[in-house]
């Protein structure tokens, strides 16, 4: 159908971004194809140590899912996106396909091993998340392709994660966010992935911040080094949400806090985390 | 002006009553409720998916009716503020908002009451944190929310299986 309609057609998933964009005339598609009448595209399955998420799975479904709760960072994300009403409509597939620089899912999923399955008229292909999102609002999806599934490896035992986003109010995008997923071996951080949101055109992998922790015990010194490296990795724009300098300071504080929560969760503590408000 | 847009037939149950309507595909759900069904209790506040004044329940889930198309409600059940009262009696949520002074100008109130209905349908004893989370998508510019929180606590005490 998309092949017939051409590249002026847009797919409508939850519509919580696309409909507002259309009202503002930022998006003006000639054709709108509503995906919501496709049955069987909303599911959360646990298969062979991977989670399989249907593209039209609502944020609220993930928030309330006992299966997704096995990966606490997914719950942190799902439960904090916008507000109840938006979480009831918005979808994980739509969020990834839109690739908004301020979107939450790409930040969180880039700290896990995530693959995006893309379906087109020539069949299905599987793309690593880091290759899927290419730039702000730009993915590898061809105009006649759609996201058919999101596949996430369940982290190994001894791993813990946390996602913290700072927002001025519930319905808005965060000012900055940080996702941390780490694996502890006793008191030493064996492996770690850190991603920053809203401080670049796409989610930023803070590799120097990861290097500051990998193979090290989590101490005030290594925490400060990681937070400082995250500040340097951020590439924010000054806008109505705050100055670039403010966002750098904010994101480094979020990274520090997220590392602490992730490490405690890796040790088996049950901590509830929610998005932070101004 | 663009050419006239072909209308689409929609069957939607609103507050228990089935309606068969013809709507333009671009019509928003809130426009259909207000303009075609004359259910003007559902308000348009910001029209940008922020304020929640247009909140209705779609299949029991709170949604912003300015952020979906009317055609997407085809076959679904919608509850608006007009669907709360029964036989001329206010719903316990409506009564609680009055008793606790949970409103001033009233513009946001229908949306807040529908968010409350979703909350209480899933959690009959919400604590304050849960209430705040449930109404985070409803903006009120009068009350400062304190009496809204009280109203929802009152409602929780008085709603049984709402």
Question: How would you describe this structure in keywords?
Answer:
heterodimer; A: alpha+beta; Enolase-like, domain 1; 6-stranded mixed beta sheet; 5-stranded antiparallel beta sheet; 11 helices; 28% strand; globular; B: 162 residues; alpha+beta; Ubiquitin-like (UB roll); DNA polymerase, domain 1; 5 strands; 15% strand
Description:
The complex is a heterodimer of chains A (278) and B (162). Chain A is α+β, with helices and mostly antiparallel strands and 278 residues long. Chain A folds into two domains: 2-33 and 40-100 and 113-153, Uridine Diphospho-n-acetylenolpyruvylglucosamine Reductase, domain 3 (2-Layer Sandwich), CATH 3.30.465.10; 159-277, CO dehydrogenase flavoprotein, C-terminal domain (Enolase-like, domain 1, 2-Layer Sandwich). Chain A has helices at 2-5, 18-23, 59-63, 72-80, 84-89, 92-98, 105-109, 129-132, 207-213, 220-233, 244-266, and strands spanning 9-12, 31-34, 44-47, 50-53, 114-120, 123-128, 133-135, 138-139, 146-153, 159-167, 176-185, 188-197, 204-205, 216-217, 276-277. The longest helix of chain A has 23 residues, at 244-266. The termini of chain A are far apart. Chain B folds into two domains: 8-82, Beta-grasp domain (Ubiquitin-like (UB roll), Roll); 92-158, [2Fe-2S]-binding domain (DNA polymerase, domain 1), CATH 1.10.150.120. Helix content of chain B is 31%, strand content 15%. Chain B has a five-stranded mixed beta sheet, with helices on both faces. In chain B, a hairpin with a 2-residue loop joins strand 1 (8-14) and strand 2. In chain B, helix 2 packs across helix 5 (146-158). The longest helix of chain B has 14 residues, at 109-122. The termini of chain B are far apart. The model of chain B has no long low-confidence stretch (mean pLDDT 95). Chain A binds chain B through residues 15-16, 19-20, 23, 32, 34, 36, 60, 82-86, 88-89, 169-172, 274, and chain B through 25, 47-52, 55, 58, 61-64, 67-69, 71-72, 115, 118, 133-134, 136-139.
């Amino acid at each position: 159908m998309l092949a017939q309609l051409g590249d002026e057609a847009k797919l409508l998933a939850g519509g919580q971004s696309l409909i507002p964009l259309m009202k503002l005339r930022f998006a003006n598609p000639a054709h709108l194809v509503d995906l919501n009448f496709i049955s069987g595209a909303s599911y959360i399955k646990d298969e062979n140590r991977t989670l399989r998420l249907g593209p039209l799975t609502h944020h609220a479904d993930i928030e309330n899912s006992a299966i997704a709760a096995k990966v606490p960072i997914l719950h942190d994300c799902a439960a904090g996106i916008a507000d109840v009403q938006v979480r009831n409509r918005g979808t994980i597939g739509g969020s990834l396909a839109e690739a908004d620089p301020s979107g939450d899912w790409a930040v969180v999923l880039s700290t896990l091993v995530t693959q995006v399955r893309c379906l087109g008229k020539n069949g299905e292909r599987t793309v690593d998340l880091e290759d899927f999102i290419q730039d702000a609002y730009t993915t590898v999806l061809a105009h006649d392709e759609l996201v058919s599934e999101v596949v996430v490896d369940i982290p190994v035992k001894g791993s813990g994660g946390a996602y913290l986003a700072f927002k001025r109010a519930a319905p808005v995008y965060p000012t900055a966010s940080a996702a941390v997923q780490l694996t502890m071996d006793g008191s030493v951080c064996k492996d770690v992935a850190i991603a920053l949101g809203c401080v670049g055109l796409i989610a930023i992998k803070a590799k120097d911040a990861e290097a500051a922790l990998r193979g090290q015990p989590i101490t005030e010194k290594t925490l400060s080094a990681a937070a400082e490296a995250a500040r340097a990795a951020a590439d924010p724009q000054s806008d109505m949400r705050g100055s670039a300098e403010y966002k750098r300071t904010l994101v480094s504080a979020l990274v520090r806090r997220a590392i602490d929560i992730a490490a405690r969760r890796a040790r088996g503590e049950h901590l509830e985390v929610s998005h932070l408000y101004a | 002006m663009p050419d006239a847009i072909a209308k689409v037939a929609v069957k939607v149950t609103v507050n228990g009553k089935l309606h068969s309507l013809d709507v333009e595909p671009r019509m928003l759900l809130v426009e259909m409720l207000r303009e075609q069904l004359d259910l003007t209790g559902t308000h348009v506040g910001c029209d940008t998916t922020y304020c929640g004044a247009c909140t209705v329940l779609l299949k029991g889930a709170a949604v912003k009716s300015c952020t979906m198309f009317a055609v997407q409600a085809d076959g679904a059940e919608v509850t608006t503020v007009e669907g709360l009262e029964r036989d001329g009696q206010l719903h316990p949520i409506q009564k609680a908002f009055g008793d606790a002074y949970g409103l001033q100008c009233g513009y946001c109130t229908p949306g807040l009451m529908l968010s409350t209905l979703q909350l209480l349908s899933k959690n009959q004893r919400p604590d304050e944190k849960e209430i705040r989370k449930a109404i985070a998508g409803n903006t009120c510019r009068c009350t400062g929310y304190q009496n809204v929180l009280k109203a929802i606590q009152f409602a929780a005490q008085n709603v049984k299986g709402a």
